[in-house]
Amino acid sequence: MPTEQRPVSQTASQIVHDHLQDELPYRRRQQALLREFGTAALQTRDFQQILQEAANLAARGLGCAYAKVLEYDPGERRLVVRAGIGWPPGTVDHVSLGADIESPAGYAFQTGQSVISNHLQKETRFRTPKLLADHGIRRAINVLIRRGGEGDTPFGILEADTPDPGQFDDADADFLAGFAGLLGIAIERQHADAKLQAALEHEALLTREMSHRVKNSLTSVVGLLRVQARGSESADVTSALENAAMRVASIAEVHDHLWRGSKVGFVDLSDFVGHLCKNLQSSAPEHTLQSRSDRIILSADKAIPLGLLVNELVTNAVKYAYVDGPGVIRMDAREINGHLLVEISDEGAGLPDGFDINEPRKSLGFRVILGLVRQLMGELRISKNIPQGVLFTIKFPLDPP
User: Fold this and answer.
1) What would the pLDDT profile of 126-155 be if each residue is shown by its tens digit?
2) Is the peptide bond before 163 cis (omega within 30 degrees of 0)?
């Protein structure tokens, strides 16, 4: 008998060995799908896509034709289908299952335990949901989807279903629970991103509101200065107040673009310079002011001193370049190798021989110009324009992209 029993023992061992050999690729594929989902969840911010990918890969890993992600709705106290594979159109976001312990999904949700049902038609522990019965589902696994944070209500349930006979085992449940764990982390990240985005949008709204109010306040100051200028009997005082009003108006123009712009704290240089030159043109209608600028996004820290510079140089050209009549003033701004090159030129009388802007002067305008160039960490070059007049060239580094 012993010699006759030995081959039987070997056969049983061989059966176990063959079973393990057959199961090994199956488990390896499950591990590969877990890695694939983990990578996909990190690479996308599309919440619905993450849920759908979880359902797709979970079904593949268990060889099922059906899978779904259920989200708990506390208002209805039900589990709503949010993503799935195999189900007919109209299922997602419309079909829900009971969240009580009388259903497999509800039991998993209420207890946190994985539920394996290999014979739903003969199941005595739970009622079979109508969605499963309508599609002839025989077997199902339900696992809880926990959120990444502590103390929060679970998100819902990840469920795999099949109408085929066979057996789900604990290793299958562990695989699906691993999927649900990764999905829970991805969901929590999505919720954290949504909260952060909402906070950023609120901050942007407050920043725009602040810029809008600053612009309105500065506009009021401009109006007061001009009223004061008109009421002054001194030509020097009137000129000083008008100059001050134009400087404040230039700063107000920046804040007007800040609150209207799509990017908080930045302005579109082309739009900003265009509006600024239009305003300057209205103050000197007898002259022709031409402007051109590349479309560059500029921070407020650079837009404000640049606006003041343009104001000073254009105003100087209006006052001193054309003493005998109207003329043309040009402003050109373009990017060159990470720097902004701004050229303001006229075809007027030109500067006096031996003019040196760095010499001490009584002119507030020239002192302001030099201070603004230093603020921009730039350089100023003054040369003769062709065929005549003056060319001011300002060059300063742009913000890194």
Assistant:
1) 888 889 989 999 999 999 998 765 556 789
2) no
Segment holding 84, helix H or strand E: strand 78-85
Write out the two tokens for 345: 């030129």
User: Which of 351, 321, 19 is closest to 169 using CA atoms?
Assistant: 19
Secondary element (H or E) of residue 185: helix 170-230
Alpha carbon dihedral 128, 131, 136, 139, in 10-degree steps, equals -50
Q: How many CB atoms lie within 10 A of CB 360?
A: 6
Instruction: Name beta bridge partners: 156.
Output: 71, 145
The torsion angles phi and psi of 375, rounded to 5 degrees, stand at -60, -35
Q: Give rounded-to-5 percent helix, strand, coil for the chain.
A: 50, 20, 30
Q: From residue 143, how far is each of 79, 104, 170, 217, 290 by CA, in Å? A: 13, 10, 12, 59, 69
Q: Give first-to-last CA distance, the chain, whole Å.
A: 85
To 10 degrees, the CA torsion angle through 387, 388, 390, 392?
-10
pTM (2 decimals)? 0.54
- Residue type for position 246: M
- Model confidence pLDDT, tens digit, residues 287-333: 899 999 988 888 888 988 998 898 889 888 888 888 778 889 999 99
Cis peptide before 401 (omega within 30 of 0): no
Contact 70, 55 (CB under 8 A): no
Q: CA-to-CA distance for 124 and 122, rounded, in angstroms?
A: 6
Answer yes or no: are the C-beta atoms of 109 and 156 closer than 8 Å.
Answer: yes
